[in-house]
Design goal:
Layout: H1 2-28, E1 39-43, E2 56-61, H2 88-123
Antiparallel strand pairs: 1-2
């Protein structure tokens, strides 16, 4: 019981931290010419001891969606450069969701730890 629950919680914590890091990088580059915001693809499958617990980062990718025509501008230094396609509203919403998921999985790990400790106290 305890090992799988802790592995599930730990893998979710790592995945959500990675998602937060990618989103923070997107926000940090919002004013970088030709920057394409990255996304994280995850996989929820049997990868921890073939039991089917946990999640993992499958890949990061930059969607091939062109910047809007309004975002294209000619800079004196770079003719035809495009502004970043980072959407701050999307990134802030994602960050709130990832933070909440991180907190929920941290609580799950703490609860599992408490249950395990209680069981050990009863046995010992």
């Amino acid at each position: 019981m305890s090992v799988n629950a802790l592995q599930t919680s730990a893998s979710a914590l790592q995945t959500n931290q990675f998602r937060l890091d990618v989103s923070a990088n997107n926000v940090a580059n919002v004013n970088t010419d030709n920057f394409r915001a990255s996304r994280v693809a995850t996989s929820d499958n049997a990868y921890v001891n073939s039991i089917g617990t946990g999640t993992r980062v499958a890949a990061t990718y930059a969607p091939n969606r062109p910047a809007s025509p309004a975002a294209t501008y000619a800079d004196a230094g770079q003719a035809g450069a495009e502004q970043s396609n980072t959407d701050l509203a999307v990134e802030m919403t994602n960050q709130m969701n990832f933070r909440n998921a991180y907190s929920a999985n941290a609580a799950m790990g703490r609860t599992e730890n408490e249950v395990s400790q209680t069981l050990l106290d009863l046995v010992g």
